[in-house]
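agent> fetching stored inputs for the flavin-adenine dinucleotide docking request
agent> found them:
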Amino acid sequence: MDISRSYRKKMDVSRKYEDFLEFRRQENSNFLWVSRTLHPQVAYIQETPPTPSLHKHEVLHSPKIQELLEKLSIAQNVPKTYFEKQVKEILDEIGYNKSIKIIRWLGMVLTKICLKVSSGIYINGNKVQQIRSMMGNCPVIFVPSHRSYADFILMSYMCFTYEIAIPAIAAGMDFQGMWGMGTMLRDTGAFFMRRSYNDDSLYWTVFKQYIYQLMTRGDLPLEFFIEGTRSRSNKSLMPKFGLISMILKPFFFAQVPDVLFVPVSISYDRILEENLFAYELLGVPKPKETTSGFFKSLKILKEHFGSIFFHIGEPISSKEFFGNSIDRSIHNIAPLHKQELTEQEKSAIPPLAFEILNKQQQGFVLTIFNLVALTLNNTYTNKDKLPNILELKHKVQWLKGVMESLGAYIHCDDVERGIRECLVVHRNLICFNSDNEVCLVENQIQQGKINTVKLKAHQLTDQVMTYSVPFVELQLYVNPTLFHIVNLAILLAVIQKEGILNKEDLWDRYHFLRSLYAMEFVIPAQMEHTVFESALEHAIALNILRLAANKYDLGTNEELQNLLHNSFKPFLVSYSTVMLVLQNSPQTCEQKTILANVQRLLEDAINDREEFVHPYTLNLDTLNNCLNSLCAMLILKKIIRENVLSFEIDKRQLDVIKRRLDVYIPSLRINEDLLVNQQLQNKL
Amino acid sequence: MPPPPSQSEKIKEPIFVKSVIPKRRQELLKWNGWGYNDSKFVVNVDEKQNIQVYFTGKRYPIGEVPLTHLAQWAIDMLNIDLTKPPKTSQPLPTESQYPESKIPQSILQQLENLGISHSIDVVDRVVRAHGQTLHDVYTLRNSVFERIPDVVVWPTCHDDVVKLVNLSNENNIVVIPYGGGTAVSGAVECPTNEPRPIISLDTTQMNKILWLDRDNLVACCESGIIGQDLERELGKMGFTTGHEPDSYEFSSLGGWVATRASGMKKNTYGNIEDLVVHVKMVTANGVLEKNCQVPRLSCGPDFNHVILGSEGSLGVITEVVIKIRPLPKCRKYGSIVFPNFETGVKFMREIAKRRLQPASIRLMDNEQFKFGMILKPEEGYFSLVLDGLKKFYLTKIKGFDVDQICVMTLLFEGDESDVKLSEKKLYEIAKQFGAIPAGETNGERGYMLTFVIAYVRDLALEYDVVAESFETSVPWDRAITLDRNVKQVVTNECKRLGITHFIINSRVTQTYDAGCVIYFYLGFNHKGLGDPVVLHNKLETKARDEIIACGGSISHHHGVGKLRRRWYPKTVSNVGLNLYLSVKKELDPKNIFATNNLVQSKL
Ligand SMILES: Cc1cc2nc3c(=O)[nH]c(=O)nc-3n(C[C@H](O)[C@H](O)[C@H](O)COP(=O)(O)OP(=O)(O)OC[C@H]3O[C@@H](n4cnc5c(N)ncnc54)[C@H](O)[C@@H]3O)c2cc1C
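agent> prediction call returned; pasting tokens
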């Protein structure tokens, strides 16, 4: 399959969404609707429809598990029944249930909540119907983006609405802790997966077999989050390969005819957890999800969350995707349960994972608020005068044109009305000031006593927190736009600093930056060149760059250049600071120390208000992306000892990279300030 | 060759067998389809537009009775318009349609001198230019073959063959052995780009039973003997080979060996490789054979297995010493109904595990079960299978789902007491699987239908429908998924190709210790979709790819021929491929047996 095509593809501006809450709003009785006779379409019709307990039974009695138990029993000289009991317990911990009563009840509750707090849940209904009609013949896997806990509840609600069998959903164990919640989710089809890879090999063998079972003998669709966890930054995270590998195993083993992956992009006008995420990004530990926390969040009922958009992507057939590159007959000899995926098969999985993620990214719907956020963010960065509503409207209108030309889909009927709605939905974040200008809301933050053990990095002062949180929250809504503009921003950064370049050199610099930021703005390596070409085309078209005598030079669209420059700047600053800290760290250094030192430096820089340093530079997501990227480049090496993560630093290589990166860093005082350096040294 | 054993009985040997099939095959058999001229499905539309389908002739028990349900079924499943006049075949080929025979006059003269019967008549040549693939029959009905043999020869004994092969080798003439012409692999077709003259070596006039050895229970037969002739003649003497491929009315002993054929009753009698005790093959390099007639020997690689499955590419099989058995005293049919396919397969696996297989045991999937009902004359949909039981009992009391029910047919052979015991054991185990015995008639009918099904294709072609089959062998643990995946892949591919009306169903036809055989039927309406042969080829290729991905084989008994060549190298590994090629080079340095089967030769 030609992946590159899909990267170049222009966004389909003729997308059609319907508000599926509309029917609920209009009907006399939601109760009649939730209690209607259901004809859910299953994914993979089985001769004998399986039940949750049948799955558990078959896993326990699978040759794989039975042989393992026999081995364990002999090795440890313990009766097999002992381990059987363990497996049963594990299966009870993992396994999903199905209670139609709970589902209907939840359907009722959700209808009420959604009608109250949202202005609509939009979906491209045609695609849903199309997918529904394709179902029945092989496992179907829904792969939604993960921006909120609401994701999977709403996914199930969507399926309930469209009479698609509610998927078996891979959920994290943290829900289990929440009293009532765990059981409730389980009853609606969630199965649970322990988070960290501990060395409980019995657990993982059972878990994998459970997935195998659901894939080969199950009839429900499956659902999992390829990003592994909720993205706190509202940007796509690097795909994880663990679960998708388990899902694909039966396909590679030819135990199912195909596996269909359905990418789902869920966009929120306003994210339920925005405030929480801002704290987490800054390093304040995430409170464990407890039910009381959940009920506290019932206060959301008093808030308004605008619209939610489901974009159901074109299903990806594994069979077509892998085509002839995979020879499934290699597993023909020896029992399947004694076989594992080959290296070749394992290496074929990441491109598929990236493709799914890419489809999610393309599918996201931008709303007016994303453009408002981008505009305001730019105003603050420039320290410009804040816009009144008319000025804002003009800016947003202009941006909308730009973004659409870049292939973004923006949901908007009327810009001004859209902005006014933003001011309601996001009244916690933006408001009018006394001059009738739109500005960020400032809330005094008092952190009180903080358990330093729980801190992920540096303890930021109340003052910096108060200043930073609104910016970070705002950035959450800027981030989704970056997918469309970051490549332009990188091209611009290069030409701005290096002047006229020919294409080859430009590609060389672009490639350097793009791969350094490959985890920040997720892109698979093999796609860089295609993306580069298309970004160049756009850059010329938008007059960001211009082409003369086969060389690239700055264009004259200064307004857009300024916006691009400012939107990429925080990421340059963060990465450069991480490297600066690494340069001044000992050979081996704990992750937490590195993060804390970076934040400390940046905190100083932010406090020094002479020059605007974006508070988002403090966010741990970006700092960790930088560390991971350096790991991928073999400049850092991860060392885990007693659950503590440290990095071993190859300083020579680091110097090389840092020098290359610093070319593009806007002159910032942290760089030159030796004092700071020394101060840092003292602290280390 | 070992000397013929001493005889006590007074049978005049060799036995000159008068074959049912005449030398001019077309006098009895369809030249453009399957089987006897007098046996075929026909559609009658009366003045009131009532459609009635019949099977003509009295050769098969189904003959001459209206098949009441077939028409509606065909309309529903395959969207056939039976009121339209059927598509007819072109008439018998004429000389003008094909290039003149390339055989040099000098060779014809030498054949004359050797006293070997031959013909360059175009019909004789066309009739031997093909087997029974869709491509073959479709070409016969609608167009011309790219290449046909230049001459047909009829040797009558081993020595004739030796002379023919020598003659051909000296003159660099291609020889293609031809037995019954029932191959469904493209094996008998002439390589299209062969510039040399081609001889079709028809073995059917070389069909004597040379001798019978009652002490060791073997018979030495010439390779051209046709299955039904062999059985009839042996039967007269109280024996049987028990080898009964579905094509045994028309296929030959030599063909069986050359394709590694498998008979329905292999559980009791064995497959062809189990039945062959000694075999002679005339190669360009001389005669390959052994010096003893022993049950088994430890003597290096067994060259019988070079001959078996050689598909005419290494030489001509002339004489085969084959095992025979006394005719069974008792033959009994049976059938069992299963709630679903998977249970049926599990049952079969259990029977195989306990080695309790009767002579034949087959499991039809739900669609085939229904089709079996369709082919029933007159009575209602369900009456036959239930055999005294009531549909009510099955569906209401036992809770079987009509859309999942599968039926198994059984054939028992042996002494009466053994058959009884075998039946008892089987039905007991069936009960444990929640299955229900469904009587003898259903079983018998199932086996009778086997022979009739082959005639369906010709009817189908008249109404823009392709009806073909393909088969594979597979380990037990992968049987169900293979079956299911292949059906799914065919379904998807049909949709992709724009085929709206199609059927894909299957049966498990054989069991082994380590696996089973799955036989698929594929039918589709190709009206308006272009060349049906191309369409079918696409479908079957996808299906075979999936079969192999699912752990199945290139073929269980149809062989490789030209149709399945592309999967041969991977099946046997590169070393295996080269091994075959070096054998080929040794036995046939000039490539006169240029059948192009198994491997495309580099000309
Ligand atoms: C309706 C139908 C049902 C069938 N059922 C079965 C079945 O149940 N089991 C089964 O195994 N097959 C079955 N077949 C396939 C076919 O009948 C077998 O492959 C059979 O063995 C072919 O024998 P034949 O005499 O017709 O050979 P042909 O079709 O004449 O030839 C087949 C190949 O063998 C070569 N050959 C033939 N005779 C000789 C010889 N004497 N020496 C060297 N090479 C020779 C030919 O060159 C050719 O390559 C069926 C086919 C049809 C059409």
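agent> quick read of the result: The two ends of chain A are 51 Å apart (CA to CA).
agent> awaiting further instructions
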